[in-house]
Amino acid sequence: MPQRSRPSRRRIGLLFVGVLLVLGACEGGGAPADHTPEELDAAKAELRDHRRLRTFEAGKLFGDEWVARAPHDAELRALYAYQLVGWGFSREVHEQADAILADDPENPWGLYTRAYAHFAAGEAETAHEIVRGAWEASPQPEFAFLYLRALMRADFEAAREFLASLDEETRGWPEVLRMEAEIESQARYELEDPTWADSMRATWADFKERFPDHVLGYTRLANEAYNDRHMDEWTSLMEAALELAPGSAEVRGQHWRGLWMSDILPREERRPAVEASMAAYRDASPETVEGLQSMASMYRQMEDEERAAELDARIVEIDPDGYHASWVRRNEMRAAREELSDVFDEHGRDSPEYRAQQEAIRDAVNDYLAGGLYDDSFKGEAYLNLFSALRSMDPVPAEELAEAIRGMAEYERLNPHITFGSAPLAMIDHTPYPLEAADIIRAGAPRVFENLEGARSFFDTEGEWDDALRGTLSGIYDVIGWAHFKAGRTEDGRHTLERALAISAYDRNARYHLGQVYEQLAADANENGDGEAATAWLDQAEDSYIAGFGASRGENPNETALEALYERRNGSREGIEEYLATLDERDRVRRHERILESRVETADTYEPFELARLDGEMVNSADLEGKVAVLHFWGTWCGPCIVELPEYQEFDERYREDPEVQVFSISNDETNEIIEDFLSKNNYDFTVLVDDGYAERAAVRAWPTTWFVDRDGYVQFVQVGTALKLDEEFSWRVEALREDEGE
Q: What is the pLDDT of residues 1-26, one digit of tens each?
């Protein structure tokens, strides 16, 4: 019988090699690759070039093509994901991480990409924990860069330590050197040492010298030149950046804003210059939603809403359910909200136009929430806007208001004082769900205190910090106590409100609410025929309102309640003006005492300055020696600053001719024109010094802030935020410092 011969070992080996070659040429068992290894390496290099040039628009389109061609190359997907981060696409970056980690759950590039997705979503803590695993598995510069970037947000000192631990080669990689500059920039604030700004500038200069083809060296130094108003230097740096990356929306946006906001061009030449730069950008870059959004944003800055709306419509047409379309709908919602202030200024709060605009806000928010949302990023803002509109309506739509507040509790993160303060109060006052409101504030209390802890650096003394803690806890008890009362649990409400005031006696809302409880107890006593108890309860109500009476911005419910109680107890309003005047004087004396007691415990000198007035004349802080000085930090962008400026004008006029007192305001607006236009529009003529970065050097962290400086240059009083009665309270401080001369 014939026998089949056994194949030789050589033939088996050749067959095995052939199988391996076939498998290697077929990605995942699919069709053969349509690229060579050299082409794939070139594609990765090009994606890195897009990162270097910040041309994320073209980088995304190029990456779309190459990920389809090489779907199982983890490094390629990670480099593509970087382009998506440049667009703000956290969801799509997560999808790239999913694709990499599906093939290999421990792939360092997959971990890096997952970390970037969390970073893009603002989750720095999660990001640095994940990317640390990538770095430990494969210590390469790209992973070090992201680890530093995320760690800097989560733990600044840990980021500095990690940077110092890196070897010289890794620290010399462009993106790691970039992080060194950014850490130095942050050190100005974290370490309260403005000299780190010089280190940061030196590092960026070194970056530009070592990597002349990397656009960040030019744009970051241009930003510093702009802040220092060195516009010739800014122009040169931006021209170099545009030559490198004419198709970068990021670079172009910086260029457009500089042309528009600075004094480098006459006003009539600015828009043509910006639009010429836009035309050059469109020639150099494919049409993308990212680019359209950048141009729309610039047109809004130039106050051309019609052109911006055309670009917005194109964005929605191209990608109706995408990230940028969500931004368009969000902007429409914001525009409706911002229009409200103009309507208020023109027509007033009680006008039909104002009520109609509240309806427009409600419609815009509901349209936004009903549209295709990219993610939940702006839901909190939407529900906050809806809440603000609904609670101002008459009548208040109770069920809609309750739904808006529930949405705030779930999604709103930036304003816990509203979400877990005024919003639950509105739910108590306008809906049938007072106990649900109490549950909302109980659940949100940890977030309220976490937010307060984040602002601890704004408090100069432990006493101020303790007052803030007490005030916050008192406010929480106030809402819970009021909820109990409105739910018919009068005694529970009374005990909780009394606890609120035991913690902080100056809570005006708790004073008013407790007064209302006492009035109810008086009514109950009258109903039971106990007139003596009713009188005692009304006396307590009056005392509570009086304690909450006094100077306050906005309406004070204690004053209204006190007037109503006076009329009810006396049968008429006769004598009420004298009664209230007595209380007003009592409050004035109490405020004067508090102002003088607020003198800083250990006075210190302040950072010297030489700043320009609007007319160009220089003012040196050394010239203030021997005078009482008031330095008032503000900006036209600062809402609370604007509120108090009419009173500040009066205060300035009071001391304008006083040779012993010098009053200066320091504005940190971007251009003199912004300040001059604002002053002219409002008929203000107080002296303004132009901030050249001084507020940052002097560690001013809140606006408005006002320093009251004695004749020897020591800051003796600090007012952070608006004053209740500015002219009066500022004058008390000035006169106290004037009297120091005789001590």
A: 333 333 333 333 333 333 333 333 34
CB 662 within 8 A of CB 630: yes
**Assigned token pair, 149:** 């970037």
CA distance 311 to 433: 44
Beta bridge partners of 605: 714
Q: What is the pLDDT of residue 699?
A: 87
- Residue 510 confidence (pLDDT) above 60: yes
Name the residue ranges covered by the structural domains of the chain: 35-137, 235-317, 507-597, 604-742
Beta-carbon count within 10 A of 616 CB: 8
**Integer Cα distance of 400 and 382 in angstroms:** 13
Tell me what pLDDT residue 554 has: 58
- What is the rounded distance in angstroms from the CA atom of residue 327 to the CA atom of residue 180? 32
Do 651 and 730 contact (CB within 8 A), yes or no? yes
> What CATH number labels 235-317?
1.25.40
- Predicted confidence at residue 508, as pLDDT, reads 87
Answer for the pair 50, 62: CB distance below 8 angstroms, yes or no. Answer: yes
SS3 421: helix
CATH number of 35-137: 1.25.40.10
Tokens describing residue 687: 């002296």
Instruction: Report pLDDT for 374.
Output: 81
Contact of 665 with 690, CB cutoff 8 Å: no
Contacts of 435 (CB under 8 A, 6+ apart): 483, 484, 487
- Contacts of residue 563, Cβ cutoff 8 Å, sequence gap at least 6: 573, 576, 580
- Please report which residue ranges of 487-507 form alpha helices under DSSP H: 490-503
What's the CA gap between 467 and 503, in Å, rounded? 9
CB-based burial label for 385 (10 Å; 0-12, 13-18, 19+): buried
Q: Label residue 269 exposed, middle or buried (CB < 10 Å: 0-12, 13-18, 19+).
A: exposed
403: left (phi over 0), alpha (psi -120 to 50) or beta: alpha
How many C-alpha atoms does 192 have within 13 Å on its Cβ side?
Answer: 7
235-317 and 604-742 have identical folds: no
Coil/strand/helix, residue 193: coil
Tens-place pLDDT, residues 537-559: 999 999 898 888 764 555 789 98
Q: What is the per-residue DSSP string for 109-174?
A: HHHHHHHHHHHHTT-HHHHHHHHHHHHHHS--HHHHHHHHHHHHHH-HHHHHHHHHHS-HHHHTSH
pTM of the model: 0.65
Which CATH code of 3.30.2350.10, 3.30.230.10, 1.20.120.80, 3.40.30.10 fits the domain covering 604-742? 3.40.30.10
Mean pLDDT, rounded, for 307-336: 90
SS (H, E, C) 435-482: HHHHHHHHHHHHHHHHHHHHCHHHCCCHHHHHHHHHHHHHHHHHHHHH
Residue 307: how many other CB atoms lie within 10 Å = 15
How do beta strands 618-620 and 705-709 pair? Answer: unpaired
563-568 mean pLDDT: 92
Contact call for residues 628 and 730 (beta carbons, < 8 A): no
pLDDT of residue 224 exceeding 90, the answer is: yes
- DSSP secondary-structure letter at 106? T
The 10s digit of each residue's pLDDT in 346-367 is: 888 889 999 999 999 999 999 8
**Residue 189 buriedness (CB in 10 A; 0-12 / 13-18 / 19+):** middle
Helical residues (DSSP H) of 487-556, grouped into ranges: 490-503, 508-527, 531-548
The DSSP code for 281 is H
- For residue 233, give both structure tokens: 């230097």
Choose between 33 and 162: higher pLDDT. 162
Rounded distance between C-alpha atoms, residue 687 and residue 704, angstroms = 16
Q: For residues 86 and 101, what is the distance between their CA atoms, to the nearest angstrom?
A: 22
